Fold these 4 entries.
Entry 1:
Amino acid sequence: MKDSMPNVSQSEPGEQVSVPVLQSPTPLKTPPYLPGKQDSPTKVKKHRRFAWKWALPALLFLGVCAAVGGYLLSQAHESQPDLATMTVPVQTKNLTIRIEASGKLEPVSTVNISPKATGRLAALYVDQGDKVQAQQILARMDAENLKAQLAQAKAQLIQSEAEYEKVRNGSRNEEINKARAALKSTQAAAELSVSRRKRYGFLTQEGAISRNDLDQYISEDRSARANVEQAQQQLQELLNGSRPEEIKQAQAKVAISQAQVQIVQTQIDDTVIRAPFDGIVTQKYATVGAIVTPTTSASATASATSSSIVAMASGLEVKVNVPETNIAQIKIRQKVEIIADSYPNRTFTGRVKQIAPEAVVEDDVTSFEVKVELLTGQPVLRSGMNVDVTFIGETVTDALVVPTVTITTSKGRMGVMVADEQGKAKFQPVKVGFSQGGETQIIKGLRPKARVFVNLPEGTKSTTPRRNRGAQRAVLRRMAR
């Protein structure tokens, strides 16, 4: 026989439980009871206690199940990432290539001005900061000794020129007449000596005079004839004039004297110090009365006080070291925007003037020196100022861009984190282009309007480097606006 079970109705927590009263037509001697009989009050109480004994565990079990289910449902809801706030879409833009770098303003031309010879500074006509023009007199060196040397050289030149004129013009008529008279005199003396030699030769044969006396007259006769020949040659030379080699020799002496005068004159001219070009006096190294020694090489520092008088500079240009990775984007005459640290709210313009043909390696960084010609700002910009320059390049149309903070690497590959079908973050390799203004061009690997993670969901394991959280929050704020 089976025991009868109470019929307990289930209820929600907090509701009153109604337990029906079981009536039995027969005493509870046997499990079944006959209809028409009712249980005693004691039996009814036993049945009620039996019903509560089963109802309380059931209610507790249902409450626990409801709580666990609610928790699991909330956890499942929370585990789904909020893609709207944690990701940003890939955008399509027209991008103008902008290469940013830092540089410095330097003069186009600079020189330390020194005298050509050691001497005393007699006068100085300019001061630091003065603007000068080409060939303007800046200073004078002492030239008293050189002036005396010039006077001596000019006197020697006059003497050389006179000798040259004498040789070139030949003998005067007076000298020729004098030579003719001398010839006649020697001829007369020769005739007399011949007559004497003949007469005394006869006397010697007769024994009237000795042989020694005759030899004396013979010697006088020979000497007289030699004098005649000499006088004839002198007269002929006067009649013929100077020889060509004598004229050339005298002419050479004149040229030497002229060169000496020119040398001394040049030395005097060099004592006048002039500006080599239009520019500004940047430094003053010497004072009047100082002994200045000429330099053998240019100096860019103020330590050359004993070898320079002043320093000059002309023009301004920007010198920028552009990294090797960006040098291919730089072209001659390319437009450049310039912002000086001294004028942060003003933008000056320039253009690329020169690109160095050889790289410079500094601290294992390879770069090329680029010179930028200033188009505006010359009146206010000064040499030595630090500037930030932006090279304006070509415009790329319909370029895919993402915030630079979303770019990461994984296992040596560059990429971004995108959502998979379940909304979880996964690594997507991409090929990037240039970056500017906090955005990076995506060349390959993403589609337009795809969404990339700026913040990874909590608990996401990633081998990517830690990102800049501040930059990520800034991107999210911009997207929210």
Entry 2:
Amino acid sequence: MRRAESNRLQWRCFLAVRAVGTPLAFYRSKMTATTPRPRILVVDDEQHQLDTVCRGLLLYGYDCQGVLSVAAALDALNAQDGADDGGGFDLVLTDLTMPGSSGLELIERVRAAWPQLPIVVITGLAATAELGIVRELQIPLLAKPFSPDTLDATIRRALAVETVDSQAG
């Protein structure tokens, strides 16, 4: 911030922008934290959407792994030493409509194997039977397009509810 000759304040704003072709791993390596960052598994069949959501989550202080299919999501959840706790993920963020297996199938598999793992659904659909099922399961639902602030607030609420539930149980 500085004063211009006309005695008005001038602002300069610098935004974090990813250069085309720069891998998200580069940005992850530059971010440090003293507290563990919540790990989010993002599942979406659209690469652009996946990259955009992961980039936003990184800027909001989350660690993000993106996958393009339900099968890849299940592999990630079963991977590592933390297979009993969903591969060490703190939350699953999934699109509802994908080719092959749907987000609803992923929800069923996650609920069966890791019932304490929070899930948030993102979708571009208006009103379908699948949306009714998601609402019946009391899973947070975000309609595309959504703002980064809305996504962050929804994830924080889902993680807070899970923390309260696990402490009570």
Entry 3:
Amino acid sequence: MMQKLATRLCGLLSAALVIVSCGDDAPVGNQGPLGSAAVDAGGVAGSGGGGIVKLGPCVAPRGLPAAPLQWVASVNCQGHALGPQKAVHIIDIEFDPDTSRIYGCGAGGLFVFEHSGGTIELVGSTAAGMTKGSKYDRIEVLGGGMIALTSRKGTLSFYDVSKPPAVTQLSQLSIADASGMGRKDDLLYVLGHDGALSVVDISSLKSPKLVGKMSGLNAPWDMRVVGDRAYVADTILGLVVIDLAKPAEPKLLETIATLGGAQDLWVEGDLLYVAVGGEGIEIFSLKEPDTPKSLSSVSWDSAVVSVSASGSLVWGVNHESIVAMDASDPNNPVPIATMKTPKWALHVFAKGNIAYVADWTHANVYFLDRSVNAPSSEVSPGTLYFTSGAKEATLNVANRGVAPLQFSGLTVTDPRYSTELSTMEVAPGQSAQVKVKLGAGKEAIDSEPLTVA
């Protein structure tokens, strides 16, 4: 038999932030945009120290200020794919500086959003008017309300979305297993998951033409073009540098191993950030653009699948959460905050202290107040399992913020269990261990989930 315990934890942070409430009259986290100062605990393993501390019942403090990271707006796109393909899964999100609009795509088609203050509104979609929404995988903003969309079904499509709700397809090309894109003047470089890089002349979006092709990649996902160089995130090869000195004749210049499978990347100044899955975010220097140099990395509990930056503020998503770190010193980046996302976060775009997130059926907006110094907790694992004969299990509580994290209490709702804490205070970047013990002579039984609060 097996007993399952959901790992929720209540603790008082030094910046007066409750992770999860433990009483009906205390604030409850992650209920909605700006709904509470409480946030759900996530999970990152780490190491802690010190002796065992036994605490009393968890009591949620009152009068707590807001957390530095806030979920401020959200829009649900489910239901807007009205044709034969009704599912909506948003897997890419981008911002258009010319129109100040946000574009999302995935299963269900293309979606156009406008964000103002505490609201984000869906203003246009290919899934309107009872039409089939189709499926797209990547967006490239071309300027002036023009965008390119790729699909792994083998298409490159161009749309005019300058006057929503009108969404007008201009043209389409066939490109096998199309993925990420990058633009240089009137040329668009299109990756294919088959290992190819196609070169498309987009001087006329109504009649684009394939003018070149390069092979030699393995499993490329996305790319960034900087001058005469392109940088490709390839989950097998790592970071790939491509020479664009002859724009229609790209050449593979260098391949650099990354700490994990490279899935996304972002260039900010002379720094390049790569989402490397379970190894988190890896930072490279581009001072030598032909041979990027790895400087550092930061990892979280779940695999980081997308990264974006604005100045020294770096954002990432890892399916379960949105994370933020300060890369003012790229050799020593500092995690600032993390927050669970309601759905399944797949892509992020940074604009100053704002992050737009493709969160499965939703497009979400987050805001980080960098003037607030606070801890940020992540709990690992997300669920404890007591199999037959097991007498104890351990949670790791990592502080991913910039101020000490303090605990005020621990509670297990089932009286057969007790808890012990390794330390009352967790410094930034460190972890504490919470032991959950089954009492002597007791047996774990298959029952409703228990809560560790």
Entry 4:
Amino acid sequence: MEIYELNAAGTEVTRTSPLLQRHDQRVCGNRIDGTLRQDLGSHRSDWSFGLDVSFNRQTTYPSYNDDFKSVVDPDRFVTEYFYDIEGIPSRYDPKNRHRVDTVAAYLENRTELTPTIKLITALRHERVKLHYTSWDDADAVDERDISRTYHPTTGRIGATWDISPQVMVYAQYATAADPASGNPGQRLFLHALRQYQADHGPAAGDRQQGGLPGRTGQCHGGTLRHRTQEHRHQRPAETA
């Protein structure tokens, strides 16, 4: 990959910042879950519960040359072989590795308050360990092997209302926690999210509603009508 810039006259293209990148990612895990159907007085109440375990490993192999610059004619150009550019090796050298180990237990309940209104609540507690290893000389020595562990508890509360056999509306408040990604300066942070959501869609019988995707469940329904979401950093439970 390179950056190209065409001059105002359209006669020259400047090539800069060649980058060779490779991502090697492996994810393994499993989920054990169960359901329980019962009545709370005269109200039907369904429970779901389970345990999530996942191990995520990602190694990146970037090679780049920030000092490289080449100017070519856009109509009649000749360029070197990409691997002949200084700083771009023909092999992949690992520069850093991210590990995310997660163990989580969750519990969710849906109770029918009336034949058309259902209350949905959920809790999820996690142990999230983030580990970063670097072989890049650009990183400071004390930043080449660091880890942090978090113990977030998240959840949601919401309700659905079947206005008619064809139309359902719902609203919810949910929280979630996800590892930061993309910004190396935040590689060991855990984002805490809060979400307020309201929506409508076709009625779907016993389908459960609500939740942030991934961490606290899946959102279903029609087109999103209103949602606000806030982000903040969680504090690590421990640093090693």
